[in-house]
Amino acid sequence: MSLGQHADFVYHDVVRLSLKRKWTEFARRSFMSNMAIFVVSEVMLCVGAVLASTSSDPTEHTEPLQIVRAVAEYLFLIDVILTFALEVLQIKKHRMDYFKDKFNLLGLVSSIFLLLVIPFRILRLSQQWPIYSVGFLLWTLRIFNFAAVFREMGVYSQVLWRILLRDFPQFIGVFAIILVAFSGSFVLALRGEDSLGVHNETSNFWEIMFTGVRILVEGQPVLEYYGPDGYRGFSCFLMVTFLGMSCVVLLSILIAQLSDTYQNVQSDARRRLQLNRAWIITRVELHSVYHRYRAPHRISKYIPFEDITNPKEVLKKWDSPPMSEINRHVKDIKEMDESHSLKLRQISIRMKHLEEQNIQILTLLRNLGCPSSPTVVFPSEIQIENPDMA
After folding, report:
1. Is residue 2's pLDDT more than 50?
2. Does residue 100 lie within any of the structural domains?
3. Residues 19, 131 within the same domain
4. Structure pTM?
């Protein structure tokens, strides 16, 4: 069963109390130490990658900066070897269950790519750079393994993951149909108008498809399609139609869909936080390599029972820490204050407008020769007395 299938069980009060105790007793400490090690390794990776990309020969370490790069790369290599060894041990221990966790695959594949850089660099092959690039990307994406436990970052990571798995495939499917229809009709129209050589970006079917993707990504035309350097009537009409469909209709639908996804994830953020912590505790309990040398955490930290007089209050404080609640209330107060300030400014502008109209009316009455004009009290002259002083 997947983690999502256990959502109702994990959110039960008894399970939440167990998660709270395990999280505070051993899981948080283990999680924070692993995150600190990953941050250090990521810094070493960045230093090595940036300095290696500026070196004419990455196998030489003669300059001071290149010596720093060598130290960073060797330290990072130790972490990569340890990560790969741990992943292999986990495969040996859990077998096919290992591959059910996407972050396990991310750690395994990224370490393999980074280890492949070594023989390519020794042989001075240029293929080391694309392999290094893929390994750098996959290794850095492992940060989402640690972001899931934080309240705000966890929401963003869940939104990003859901967008990549659910929203983008639907959008890309619809866009692919429109793109193929546009590219085929556009290349035929250009062939009929003998305009395939007007722009290199639209000289054949595949170039037109790539141009369509660029138009969607950049949100604007990427070439001159109208005027002396543009296309003729029917081809220009097809281009305008595609621009309207991709830049206006499809992008608007995508934005609305992403907004709806964020609202759904945000509304279920607390439950997702519980699930993420349960997932981390499970990894700490099952994926530790020290179990052969010492008792597992679930045995060493086991107690027969724990007397809790008010479990609801304990869970409430754990789910919503006091400082988090205070920050949320302060944010709400600031938003209300900004809203009231905006309304007061609008009222002030309207009062000034009414005052100007009253002045114009009085001036008109005097010009008409009225013997006496009424006394008018302008809004800006009204003084509100303090009720305590009355």
Report:
1. no
2. yes
3. yes
4. 0.62
- 14 and 140 housed in the same domain: yes
Are residue 29 and residue 87 in the same domain, yes or no? yes
Same domain membership, residue 338 and residue 261: no
Report CA dihedral (146, 148, 152, 156) to the nearest 10 degrees: 110
pLDDT score of 7:
57
Structural domain tally of the chain?
3
Residue 43 lies in a domain: yes
Say yes or no to pLDDT of 293 above 50: no
